[in-house]
Amino acid sequence: MKRFHIYLSLITLLLFAVTIIYAQQTTADRATVPFSDPSKPGLVEAYVNDGSITIKGYNGKEVIVEAKMRGEKIKEREIESEKAEDMHRISANRTGLVIEEENNVMEVYVSSHDNTVDLMIQVPFSTSLKLNSHENGDIVVENIKGEIEAASHEGSVTLKKISGSVVAHAFDGDILVTFDQMDAGKPMSFTAFDGDIDVTFPTTLKANVKMRTQEGEIYSDFEIDLKATQQQKTQDERKEGGKYRVSFGEFILGAINGGGPEFQFVTHEGDIYIRRAK
Q1: Rounded Cα–Cα distance for residues 79 and 104 (Å)
Q2: Residue 80's CB: how many other CB atoms inside 10 A?
Q3: Confidence tier at 229 by pLDDT (50, 70, 90)
Q4: Phi-psi bin for 96: left (phi > 0), alpha (psi -120 to 50), beta?
Q5: Which of 72, 125, 187, 194 is 20 to 30 A away from residue 163, measured at CA?
Q6: CA dihedral sign of residues 249, 255, 261, 266
């Protein structure tokens, strides 16, 4: 019985050691990169084919990038060589992180297409962003004052404590945006295919809104002054036997607090919520 406990203890220690080794092998790739001119706002363009992107604004001047493998999604390849018989294949956890900076524009991307890699980036508050995630990942942004363009093909787009203009698109996911302040005078766009659009604005919002949902509803706690649907005409030359066509667009048009720049809200299968901050 004592020998059994000794064996059990040895196995436990071995598993613990393997866990530590694995944790060391899966340590994230991390880099700190300055902008060419830290005194001016910069632009970060981040792209990941398979994974998520998380951006947080902070009170600093440099961009801190961390790329981490998600789990063990390493494509297994069959051993075809007879020379490798009875041997173990050694797989490295390669994120393929690449960072390039020039003239205050920083490009961050993952060159590997074999693994799921999540990007976590800290940027100065005033940084503008262009973000794209293709599959298996959401886009999350917090505490940013710059302009934001974010597109996710298989995931949601969540933007919190935003003060700049936004262009957001989600093909298979929701869009959730909360503004602290507004960048007056700039148009914005929120589009989704299979998902809800939920945006919270300051009470002082002034905008012309253009809204459409194919299979959902539209809700707002702002007073929206609705306008007549725009009429579109097409006329060919009558003398050549052309036809005259009149069509009305599917958008609902309106003005909030007297109107302002155009804000577009479009989803195919989802609801639209235009909220007023409490």
Answers
A1: 46
A2: 6
A3: low
A4: left
A5: 194
A6: negative
Using DSSP's 3-state secondary structure scheme, residue 73 falls into coil
Are 263 and 177 in contact by the 8 Å Cβ rule? The answer is: no
Q: Classify residue 45 by its DSSP letter.
A: E
β pairing state of 272-276 and 139-144: unpaired
Distances (CA, A) of 274 to 82, 179, 212: 63, 12, 12
Centre a 10 Å sphere on the Cβ of residue 14 and count the other Cβ atoms it contains.
10
**Which H/E stretch holds residue 7?**
helix 2-25
Question: pLDDT (tens digit, 9 = 90+) per residue, 139-184?
Answer: 999 999 999 999 999 999 999 999 999 999 999 999 999 999 987 7
Amino acid found at 39: S
The band of 111, judged by pLDDT with boundaries at 50, 70 and 90, is: confident
Dist CA 244 CA 226 (whole Å): 28
- Which of 155, 189, 200 minimizes the C-alpha distance to 174? 155
Mean pLDDT for 8-26 is 43
CB distance 197 to 174 below 8 Å: yes
DSSP SS3 for 265? strand
Handedness of CA 195, 151, 166, 266 (dihedral sign): negative
pLDDT tens-digit series, residues 190-228: 999 999 999 999 999 999 999 999 889 999 999 999 987
AA letter at 190: F
Short-list 104, 128, 113, 91, CA closest to 37 = 104
Supply 22's token pair: 């694995």
pLDDT of residue 76: 46
